[in-house]
Structures are given as structure tokens and as C-alpha cells.
Amino acid sequence: MQDVLLDVQDLVVHFRVYGGYLKVLDGVTLQVRHQERVGLVGETGCGKTTTMKTIMGILPKPPGVVRGGRILFKGRDVLSMRPQELEHLRRSGISMIFQDPTAALNPVFTVGEQLEDAIRYALGKRDHASVREVALSALQSVALPDPPRILESYPVQLSGGMRQRVCIALALACPKELLIADEPGTSLDVTIQDQILRLIHRLAEERKMAVILISHSLGVIREWTERVYVMYAGTIVEEAKTGELFARPLHPYTEALMRCVPKLTGTGIAEGIPGRIPDYFDPPSGCRFHPRCPHCMDICRQRKPQLFPVDGDHRVACFLFGRDSHG
Ligand code: SF4
């Protein structure tokens, strides 16, 4: 793939627990081009946030252990970066909107101290008035009322929704090359969430910034992304251009996920996916989806399918669509 900004290759991450390891990521491979808007979908617990935290260099170790794979950002290996290099990467290369705002805000500093520190580092501005101006405008852009008061507040003095908007302001205050938005605004009401997505879209265009949008809402992914990765139980099972994926979902899991969307036409209640995400302590052999798959074959229990190209950029990890050289 030409013009690649982020290249994740065969990433394997386990978590140490009493009595063994949870084998959460099982060879995640994905790429993001410069200025591209990429979606990542999958059920809760499928490893989306673990993948993003590993990319950001904030996977808690222990219990997290990177067992294999590479993460290249602009050709540089993130997994071998020293702590200062990772800090620089987070302050000037990649920012992340966290699903949980408490993970991003330090409770002992005011919002203003945290926001102004990030702006000073990224923009190199020493003049207090101009830094404060950027901070105020960042808070305004996420529809927070009374930004001067918010700047003086500690996170604990704000509601959960306000803290989430502060996190979004923190992530968007300064230009970065890649924004990872993990369920941005899901705890906010739909009008604010829509406003946040429009803001991300506008800033991505203005700043020529790439975006990875993680969302459980297929509608959000369909509207705001150009290409989509579908993740199941720690592995990518399908990737395609957004229009192509929604028009022609191929992997049995993607098909099932699409059937879960509630029908606004009132023609029936959405179907669920029988079974549940596997136990990562002892995941299924071969294709991790096989215990839930209506098309399961013998080979599915024995071998893990690779991503087979189907049509152009459309690739699917399923033996219904191809066999590798050993299959
Ligand atoms: Fe189903 Fe086999 Fe395809 Fe897995 S590889 S999704 S079990 S048909």
C-alpha cells in the first residue's frame, strides 16, 4: 500500500493473569494512509482499544505483553521507541480520544494546566495569552459552556459528559498527523455527538490529518469513513472500502454484524449473533469465529485463515473465499 502513515503488522498481545495468559490480539494487521479516514468495528471486547493503546505506547505492561508484530508510524518502529520518543509521538504525531475520559485526564491538575501544557509543547508558543486563546477556542469547539470557568476547574468538578468533551478538546487542540477516536462522544447526546463528528471531519480536512474511528455504530462508520476494518476476537476478519463493505459484506461475522442493526422501517427486530466472543484464556483453534459460524468446515477448526484478496482492496479472512498455500 502506497503512502502509508501507520502500518501494523501481525500484532500479538497477551495479558498475564492468574494461571496463564489471555491471548487477546492474535495477529492484527492494518494500515492507514496519509489523510485517510479509516473505521474499526467489532463487538465490545474484540481488542479494538487494546490495539490502539499498543499503537500509542500506553499498553499497561504488566499485565500486557507484546508477543510479536510490528507497528511502524512514518516508517519508525513504535514498539522499540524509548519513553521520551513515545512521549514526543503522543504530543506531536498521534493523539487519541479515549472512550473513558478518566484515562486521559490527570485529576491533580486543572483542565487549563493540562490543555495549555499540551498546546505549548505542540505549538512551541511561550506567550501565555496566545496559548490561553488556543485553549479557550478548543473548549468552545466542543460546545462546552463557559470555557474560562472550565479552564480553572479540576476534572472532578466536571460531569462525565463535560470531562469527555474536555478530552476531545485536548486531542483536537493541536494539529497531529493521526487521530485515533475511540467511540468519540458516545456518552453524549446525539446532537453533541454529531457536532463532535463534524468537528473531527472538518479538522481532518483542514489539517490533512488521518483518522481511525472506532465505533460500535455501523451508521457512524458508514457516514464518516472511507475504508473499514472489521475485527473479531483479536483479529482482522475483513477490510474494504466503506461503500463496498456495506454493499457486499462477505465474512460471515460481518454479515451477522450487519443483521444486528436495528431496523427503522419497523419490519422486524434486528437479529443478534448467536454465541459470544470467545474466552481469551483458551480461544478456539483455527478460525476464532468457528464456534459461532453457520458455514464452519473441518479446515476452519484446524487452520487460521489469512486475509485473502477478493476484489481490489476488499480482503476477507475466511476459507469460503480462498485457501493459503498450505490450506
Ligand atoms: Fe466460518 Fe470457516 Fe469462514 Fe471462519 S473460516 S468464518 S469458520 S467459514
UniProtKB/TrEMBL annotation:
The keyword Translocase applies. GO terms for biological process: peptide transport. This is ABC transporter ATP-binding protein. It is found in: Cell inner membrane. Keywords: ATP-binding, Cell inner membrane, Cell membrane, Membrane, Nucleotide-binding, Translocase, Transport. GO terms for cellular component: plasma membrane. It comes from Candidatus Caldatribacterium saccharofermentans. Residues 6-258 form the ABC transporter domain. SUPFAM superfamilies: P-loop containing nucleoside triphosphate hydrolases. NCBIfam families: oligo_HPY. The keyword Isomerase does not apply. One of its GO terms (molecular function) is ATP binding. The lineage of its organism: Bacteria, Pseudomonadati, Atribacterota, Atribacteria, Atribacterales. It is a peripheral membrane protein. It comes from the Bacteria. InterPro entries: AAA+_ATPase, ABC_Ni/Peptide_Import, ABC_transporter-like_ATP-bd, ABC_transporter-like_CS, Oligopep_ABC_C, P-loop_NTPase. Pfam families: ABC_tran, oligo_HPY. Belongs to the ABC transporter superfamily.
